[in-house]
Amino acid sequence: MLDAMDQGNRYSFTEMNEMKALLAQKEGVTPDHILLGAGSGELLCLAGLGVGLEGGAVTSAFPVFRQLMEYAQKFNARWDKANLDDYLVHDLEGLASAVKADTKILFLVNPNNPTGTVLDPAKLKSFCLEMSKKTTVYSDEANSGRNGKEGIPDSYLGLPWQRMVPCEHWHTG
Ligand SMILES: Cc1ncc(COP(=O)(O)O)c(C=O)c1O
């Protein structure tokens, strides 16, 4: 980071492409599957905007990190919610039944913010596989690749990329 510091005021097109290539290689996809943003918030807003412009709904647990849904609602999309269970974990059955014919995105947050609860990786994977037959599954994961906690999936390899949007973001400090 120190070496890169004096380049920080430059446009980073070359570095962005290098970063995309590295991430694509790690995830076993082509670079055009990778979208980088100025923070994952930018990508959440874009996805919310997309749902609004297409018309339809986004489904998520409640409460969760709400940036995508709030943006979608501003563009007249509907937000369908499934309450967290008694342990403040995503209720997968509740979420499945909250997905409707016009649901454009099923939004998951793992670990969840604001509750910090984590989904069982095997259950999460089979849930994503099942739900991605019905809608696009957007999975928002903070620091998943490097927080070292057992049980948090590092990658979504093997899931259908046409209908899955794994979104990783890393917080420093
Ligand atoms: C679950 C979750 N998603 C997305 C964000 C947005 O993060 P950033 O835009 O800083 O990458 C946060 C920030 O706290 C978060 O907790």
| Number of separate helices | 5
- The total count of strands amounts to 5
Percentage of residues in helical conformation: 25-40%
Specify Rg, calculated over alpha carbons. 17 Å
Shape: globular
Question: What share of the residues does DSSP label as strand, in percent?
Answer: 15-25%
Sequence of strands across the biggest β-sheet: 2-1-3-4-5
User: Per CATH, which architecture of the domain at 55-173?
Assistant: 3-Layer(aba) Sandwich
Q: Tell me the structural class.
A: alpha/beta
> Average pLDDT across residues?
86
| Parts with pLDDT < 50 across at least 5 consecutive residues | 146-152
The CATH homologous superfamily name of the domain at 55-173 equals Type I PLP-dependent aspartate aminotransferase-like (Major domain)
Attached small molecules: pyridoxal-5'-phosphate
Name of the top-level CATH class of the domain at 55-173: Alpha Beta
**Strand count, sense and closure of the main sheet?**
5 strands, parallel
Q: What pattern of helices and strands is seen along the backbone?
A: HHEHEHEHEE
N/C terminus separation = 13 Å
Instruction: Provide the CATH topology of the domain at 55-173.
Output: Aspartate Aminotransferase, domain 2
Report on the structure:
- It is a single chain.
- This protein has five helices and five strands, in the order ααβαβαβαββ.
- It has helices at residues 13-27, 40-54, 67-74, 92-98, 121-131, and strands at residues 57-62, 78-83, 103-109, 136-142, 164-169.
- Strands 2-1-3-4-5 form a five-stranded parallel beta sheet.
- The protein starts with 12 loop residues before the first helix and ends with a strand.
- Pyridoxal-5'-phosphate binds at residues 39-41, 65, 109, 113, 140, 142, 169.
